[in-house]
Design goal:
Elements (H helix, E strand, L loop, with lengths): L16 H32 L1 H12 L1 H28 L6 H30 L1
C-alpha cells in the first residue's frame, strides 16, 4: 500500500466557485463549437436557396431556436469575459482568494448583462 495522500472523495468534496466556473468555461467552449456549426448551417442554407433558408429561418424563429440562440449568446459572452480573466491570470494577477471570488462573480454578472443588452439591441434593430 502506498503512503501517498488520496484526493477527497466526491461525497466530501465541496465544489467551489473557481472549479464550477472552470468547468463552465470548458462547457461554453464546447457550446460555441456546436453553435458555430449551426451558424454554418444557417449560412449554407442561405447560399442553397430560398426554400432551404426558409427552413433554417423557421427553426431560428421557433421557441427552441430562440433558446439555442440565447444559450449561444450567453456562452459567447461568458467565454469572452472569462477569457479576459484568464489573461490576467497569465500575467500573474488576481490569484488571491478574495479576487478570485470577486472576478468570478463579475464574469457571471458581465456575461448576463451583455447577453441581455445584446438581445435588447437585437430586438430594437431587427424588430
Amino acid at each position: 500500500m502506498s503512503d501517498r495522500p488520496l484526493s477527497p472523495h466526491i461525497q466530501v468534496y465541496r465544489p467551489q466557485i473557481t472549479s464550477i466556473l472552470s468547468i463552465f468555461h470548458r462547457l461554453t467552449g464546447l457550446t460555441l463549437g456546436a453553435g458555430t456549426l449551426l451558424l454554418a448551417w444557417w449560412l449554407i442554407s442561405a447560399a442553397i436557396g430560398p426554400d432551404a433558408h426558409a427552413d433554417a429561418q423557421w427553426f431560428w424563429s421557433s421557441w427552441i431556436g430562440r433558446l439555442v440562440l440565447l444559450g449561444f449568446t450567453f456562452s459567447l459572452f461568458y467565454h469572452l469575459c472569462n477569457g479576459i480573466r484568464h489573461l490576467f491570470w497569465d500575467m500573474g494577477m488576481g490569484f488571491d482568494l478574495k479576487t478570485l471570488h470577486a472576478t468570478g462573480w463579475l464574469v457571471l454578472a458581465a456575461a448576463s448583462g451583455l447577453t441581455v443588452l445584446a438581445w435588447i439591441v437585437g430586438y430594437a434593430v431587427g424588430g
